[in-house]
Design brief:
Blueprint: H1 11-14, H2 16-26, H3 33-53, H4 59-80
Helix pairs in contact: 2-3, 3-4
């Protein structure tokens, strides 16, 4: 099956996912974080679909999308379980002789 050709996109449109991703990972307000994560995830999915339709080697951007998706999922887990967000916070102090 041949790939559909899509209209050329402006650079700002095709890299919009990067900006939304940055906003999500840099958000310090816990009440805004879920919304920013969701927006970034939607943009990542949309861009991934666009890349499927585009001809050429998109492996670098595809890898960046995979990495960003992985990190956003991890960030969502931390946001949902804040008590687990600090890996050393749950350890009991150990006395050294």
């Amino acid at each position: 099956m041949a790939k559909k050709s899509s209209p050329p996109r402006a650079e700002s449109e095709s890299t919009n996912w990067r900006e939304l991703y940055r906003v999500a990972i840099l958000e310090l307000n816990p009440s805004k974080l879920p919304q920013h994560i969701a927006e970034a995830e939607r943009a990542l999915i949309e861009r991934g679909r666009e890349l499927v339709q585009e001809a050429g080697d998109n492996s670098e951007e595809e890898r960046a999308l995979e990495d960003a998706t992985y990190f956003l999922r991890a960030l969502r887990r931390i946001e949902v379980q804040p008590e687990l967000s600090h890996p050393l916070g749950s350890l009991n102090p150990v006395k050294v002789a």
